[in-house]
Amino acid sequence: MANQRVLIVDDEPDIRELLELTLMRMGLDTLSVPDLKSAIRQIDQHAYDLCLTDMRLPDGNGLELVKYIQHKCPDTPVAMITAHGNMELAIDSLKAGAFDFVSKPVEIDRLRALVNQALKISNTSNQTSPSPAVPTMVGESEAMTQLQSKIRKLARSQAPVFIQGESGTGKELVARQIHALGPRAEGPFVPVNCGAIPSELMESEFFGHKKGAFTGASEDKSGFFQAANNGTLFLDEVADLPLAMQVKLLRSIQEKKVRTIGSQQETDVDVRILSATHKNLDALVASGEFRQDLFYRINVINLPVPALRERTSDIPLLCQRILIRIAESYELSPARLDKAAENALMSYPFPGNVRELENILERAYTLCEDDRIGLRDLQLEQTPAAAISGANNSNGNGERYARPSDMNLEDYLMEVEREVVEQALEETRWNRTAAAKRLGITFRALRYRLKKLGLD
Fold first, then answer.
1. Which long-range contacts (CB under 8 A, 24 or more apart) does 81-84 make?
2. What is the pTM for the complete model shown?
3. Are 382 and 389 in contact (CB under 8 A)?
4. Contact 446, 452 (CB under 8 A)
5. I need a surface site. Which of 10, 139, 180, 333 has the fewest CB within 10 A?
6. How far apart (Å, rounded) are the C-alpha atoms in residues 237 and 224?
7. 267-319 pLDDT, tens per residue?
8. Are strands 266-268 and 271-277 parallel, antiparallel or unpaired?
9. What whole-number distance in Å separates Cα of residue 241 and Cα of residue 406?
10. In what order do the strands lie in the sheet with 161-164?
11. Least confident span in 138-147, 196-205, 227-236
12. What span, in angstroms and rounded, lies between the C-alpha atoms of 418 and 422?
C-alpha cells in the first residue's frame, strides 16, 4: 500500500527540511513548495492526505490556502504553522477551517502528535456516524439536519468548540458525538461539570496533586487534563468557573501544559477542549465576570443547539425513542402515546427542553394503563412546585418531613418516596398488588418505583 502523502508549504528552506525529515522518519511521503501559487498547483494536480502550511508566504498567506483546500478537497486536513505567541493568527486559521496549528520553533513531539491525529481523519473520511454505543441527538427536522452536518464538520477539526444552548437541549450529547466522530474517538472523553466543583478543590481536580502537597493529600492524584490526554475534555457550565481558575485554565489551554500541585515540573498534555453553558457568556464578559481572553480561546467555533420548541416535528420520534429506553431500563413492556397526548406535547413550549420531555414521559409511563399514555397521564398543567407539594410529605404519623440542609431536593424527594413505599409494603406484608392499591397507583407504577428505588 502506498505511503500517505503530505504537502509542505513554507518559504524557509530550513523549516521545509526539518518537516521533511521528521515526516519521512514517520514513513510518510512528502513534497515541499515555497509559495502559495505552487501549493495551489499541487492541490489541483495531486491528492494529499495532509497539508502543512506556514501562515506567512511570499505571495499570500496560509489562510487563503486553507480556504482553497476547504473548497477544492474538503477531506484534506490542513495544519497551520504560526509564529510563536501569535495566538490571534492561530485562532483565525482554526476559524477558517484549519485542522490544528503548531508554533515556531516547531517542537518535534508536538508535530508528530498533530500529524498522527490529522492522518486519522484521512483514514476515516467516510465515517458519518459514531458507534451505536454512543448516544446521539435524535431528530430529522431541518434544525437537526443542520446541526448534524456541523457536528460532522467540527469533528474533523481540533478547534475548540463552544456549545451554546438552553438547559436540557443535549449539549453533552453534542460534545460526545463530536468526540466520537473525530480522530480522538479511541481516546478518553472526560466531562466536567464546572459548577459542581468546590472552588478550593478546583486546581487539584483539574491539574492533579502530589502526595503531601497539602493537608489531606495522602497520595498522588491525576487531574482532568491528565485523564483526558489524547482525548477530549468537555467543560460543561464553564461560566461557573471563578476568575482565579479561569487564569490557570487559559494558560493550560494555550501552552498545552499543566503543572501538578506540589510539582516543580510542567507536563505536556494533548487535549481537545469542548465547552458549554446555558448562560450568556457575552454578557458575563461585558460585566467582567468571565475573562475575555479565555472566552476568545474557547469560543473559536460557536455551535448553537436548538431548543425543542424550535424543532417540534422531532417530538414524535423523540417520544418513541424515550419510551423504548424507559421500558428497557425497567424491563417492562413499552407504552405508546394516544393522539391527544401527542398533540398536547407538540403544542407544549418545553422550557426544560428534551430533559423535561424525558421527565414528563417517565412520569406518564408509571401512571398509564394498558401501555397507552393519554392526555391525563402527561399532567402537563402540573407545575414543578405543585408536583413537589403534592408529594406525600408526612411520615404516616402526621409529622412533616424536614429536608436536611446538606441534602439536595432530588435526593430528599427520593428518600421520602422510598420511606412511603416501604411503609406501604410493610403494612401489606409485601403484597405488591395490595401495596399499589394502598398507594393509589397502578401495579406497573409500583414495579417501576421499586426498580428505581432499588427495592425490587
1. 81/10, 81/15, 81/52, 81/53, 81/54, 81/55, 81/106, 82/55, 83/55, 83/56
2. 0.79
3. no
4. no
5. 333
6. 15
7. 999 999 999 999 999 999 999 999 999 999 999 999 999 999 999 999 999 99
8. unpaired
9. 22
10. 189-193, 231-236, 271-277, 161-164, 301-304
11. 196-205
12. 6
Set out the domains of the chain in order of their start, with CATH numbers.
5-123 (3.40.50.2300), 142-306 (3.40.50.300), 309-381 (1.10.8.60), 394-456 (1.10.10.60)
More confident residue, 287 or 381: 287
Amino acid at the residue 413: L
Report the distance separating Cα 329 and Cα 229, nearest Å.
Answer: 33
Q: Which three cell numbers stand for residue 199?
A: 472552588
Give yes or no for a cis peptide into 316 (omega within 30° of 0).
no
Closest CA to 164 of 293, 290, 298: 298
SS3 label, residue 276? strand
387 or 129, greater pLDDT? 129
Among 229, 318, 256, 302, CA closest to 100? 256
Q: Is the pLDDT of residue 340 over 80?
A: yes
Helix axes 353-367, 443-453, angle to 10 degrees: 130
User: Which residues neighbour 149 within 8 Å (Cβ) at sequence distance 6 or greater?
Assistant: none
Report the pLDDT value the prediction gives residue 384, as an integer from 0 to 100.
42
Measured CA to CA, the distance from residue 114 to residue 326 in angstroms comes to 42
The C-alpha atoms of residue 289 and residue 241 are separated, in whole angstroms, by: 9
Res. 177 pLDDT band, cuts 50 70 90: very high
State how far the Cα of 236 lies from the Cα of 252, in Å rounded to an integer. Answer: 17
CA distances from 267 to 111, 138, 259, 359 (A): 16, 39, 6, 43
| Phi, psi of 38, deg, nearest 5 | -65, -35
pLDDT band at 82 (very low <50, low <70, confident <90, very high): confident
Strand-pairing partners, residue 231, are 271
Amino acid 131: pLDDT? 58
